Amino acid sequence: MSILDIPISNLTLSQALKTATDYLKQPACHMIFTPNSEMLMVAQKDPELKMVLQQGDVVVPDGIGVVIASRLLGHALPERVTGFDMMHSFLERGDQYNYSFYFLGGKPGITDIMVENIQKKYPQLKICGHHHGYFDIKEENAILEEINQLKPDFLFVALGMGKQEKWIYANREKMNTHIAMGVGGSFDVFAGKVKRAPVFFQKTGLEWFYRLIQEPWRYKRMMALPYFILKVLQQKK
After folding, report:
1. pLDDT tens string 176-219
2. Which runs of E-coded beta strand occur in the chain?
3. Which end of the chain is more exposed for a tag (fewer CB within 10 A), N or C?
4. Rounded to whole angstroms, how far apart are CA atoms 233 and 186?
5. What sign does the dihedral 173-182-92-143 (CA atoms) show?
6. Dihedral sign, CA of 216, 221, 223, 225?
7. Residue 233: which pLDDT band, with cuts at 50, 70 and 90?
8. In whole angstroms, what is the distance from residue 237 CA to residue 233 CA?
9. So what's the pLDDT on residue 86?
10. Is 10 domain-assigned?
């Protein structure tokens, strides 16, 4: 279905994982995006981001606001599918099926801690490389060269909302990887720098409220949700 001119994949988490697994058998780089209502609102004022999201191979609803919007439009998405849950599931499967991973993004030092934590949890996981997200053009070329040499099955990119999606799209034909996925703040969670909401908040769609309690400075960003719902209602009319 389409929400504010951006196609959203009508998939459960398990279906999205199955689709992505099928991509591992194909040579091209496939793009997975995980927009929430805030990103969809930003895309309304950023034509480039909107175009990029429209080109995603899998675009899942990371925020409960997107799921609510689908219901308002009469085409209810089956469930919320977060980028963190997808990344976590890929890592669990990677430990079992010998998939390889490259991590790009996060602050210097944070990515190192994250990789160390993941490797401790999944000792057999094949992490072939990682690099923080603060790089210049010269370093970027070296990163792309390294990715092409290592040929990871999965490339997780955490450069911040919008920037990571644009970066993946701009470099999709240059990279020798099967799946490139924007994962937002997931690196901070795996590094232990940010605590994810308890299961109750996740299952009731109130994870945003938990984050607001933990990080009250985010309230301005949270205001995108009511504006988003109004935009969706306008689309319905």
Report:
1. 999 999 998 899 999 988 776 666 666 666 665 556 556 665 55
2. 2-3, 6-7, 30-33, 58-59, 100-105, 126-131, 154-158, 179-182
3. C
4. 31
5. positive
6. negative
7. confident
8. 6
9. 97
10. no
Q: Residue 58: CA atoms inside 13 Å, Cβ hemisphere, count?
A: 27
User: What domain range is 107 assigned to?
Assistant: 33-231
The predicted model scores a pTM of: 0.90
The C-alpha atoms of residue 50 and residue 3 are separated, in whole angstroms, by 11
What is the distance between the alpha carbons of residues 194 and 209, in angstroms, rounded to a whole number? 15
Average pLDDT score, the chain? 90
Query: Structure tokens of 185?
Result: 């703040």
CB 71 within 8 A of CB 232: no
Q: Domain of 103: which CATH number?
A: 3.40.50
C-alpha to C-alpha distance for 47 and 199, rounded to whole angstroms: 35
Asked if residue 144 is part of any domain, the answer here is yes
Contact 180, 155 (CB under 8 A): yes
Per-residue confidence at 77, pLDDT binned at 50, 70, 90? very high
Token pair listed for 225: 């949700």
Residue 24 within any structural domain of the chain: no
- Interhelix angle 47-54/37-45, rounded to 10 degrees, is 120
Could you give the number of structural domains in the chain?
Answer: 1
pLDDT in tens, 89-142: 999 999 889 999 999 999 999 999 999 999 999 999 999 999 999 999 889 999
Closest to 88 (Cα-Cα) out of 176, 187, 18: 187
| Distance, CA of 36 to CA of 163 (rounded, Å) | 15
Q: Is residue 26 situated within a structural domain?
A: no
